[in-house]
């Protein structure tokens, strides 16, 4: 199934800390899950290797500024870094690592009782991470991008994109946005294979057979 571009228009962005930029927001038809994912095209044109961030929706962190996770700060950082380098931020409607908002809040309650973020998902009958990046590969292909550098601390994103036919040349980690409220959450992510977030470092992508 092939995705196609639906709408491409200018979107001025402005944040409360004073940073602003202008993006092109792109919507799509034909995505396999039928959801309304969008891409933001930012910064200078890049011919061979755009910097790409796959950002999963987090209402609590992105909109309400929740300190339980690092999603809001990662979104803010990613937009600025992609705008500097040239590339795309794909905003994916995969709340709670793919389990949805209500289930994510159920998982928060289990975390308050002592489970970590992955254990809580499993206790609710879900996988540790339910996200599938097929739509992200579709979006990149529709945009004409098949070779990218990926801005992420999560190697699974790179492995999935590579398996879906996107040439991921390297992973570029984001910074670490640690606080007293999210320290356990971030430690759990590292235990489950996330990079430590040393900004400026990059690592190759390997695809497991």
From TrEMBL:
CDD domains registered for this protein in UniProt: GTP_cyclohydro2 (cd00641)
Entry EC no(s): 3.5.4.25
Keyword annotations from UniProtKB, A to Z: GTP-binding, Hydrolase, Metal-binding, Nucleotide-binding, Riboflavin biosynthesis, Zinc
Pathway: Cofactor biosynthesis; riboflavin biosynthesis; 5-amino-6-(D-ribitylamino)uracil from GTP: step 1/4
A Pfam family annotated for this UniProt entry: GTP_cyclohydro2
Primary enzyme class: hydrolase
SUPFAM superfamilies registered for this protein in UniProt: RibA-like
Protein name: GTP cyclohydrolase II
Catalytic activity: GTP + 4 H2O = 2,5-diamino-6-hydroxy-4-(5-phosphoribosylamino)-pyrimidine + formate + 2 phosphate + 3 H(+)
Cofactors, names only: Zn(2+)
Taxonomic lineage of the native organism: Bacteria, Bacillati, Actinomycetota, Actinomycetes, Propionibacteriales
Residue ranges of every copy of the GTP cyclohydrolase II domain listed in the record: 21-173
């Amino acid at each position: 199934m092939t995705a196609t571009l639906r709408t491409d228009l200018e979107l001025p962005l402005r944040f409360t800390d004073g940073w602003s930029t202008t993006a092109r927001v792109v919507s799509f038809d034909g995505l396999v899950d039928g959801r309304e994912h969008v891409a933001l095209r930012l910064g200078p044109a890049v011919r061979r290797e755009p910097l790409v961030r796959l950002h999963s929706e987090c209402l609590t962190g992105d909109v309400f500024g929740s300190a339980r996770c690092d999603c809001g700060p990662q979104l803010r950082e990613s937009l600025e870094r992609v705008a500097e380098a040239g590339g795309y931020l794909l905003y994916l409607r995969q709340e709670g690592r793919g389990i949805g908002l209500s289930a994510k809040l159920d998982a928060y309650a289990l975390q308050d009782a002592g489970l970590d973020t992955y254990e809580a998902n499993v206790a609710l009958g879900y996988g540790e991470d339910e996200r599938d990046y097929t739509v992200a590969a579709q979006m990149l292909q529709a945009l004409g991008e098949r070779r990218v550098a990926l801005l992420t601390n999560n190697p699974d994103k790179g492995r999935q994109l590579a398996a879906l036919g996107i040439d991921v040349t390297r992973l570029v980690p984001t910074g670490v946005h640690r606080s007293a409220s999210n320290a356990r959450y971030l430690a759990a992510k590292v235990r489950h294979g996330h990079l430590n977030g040393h900004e400026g470092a990059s690592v190759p992508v390997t695809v497991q057979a």
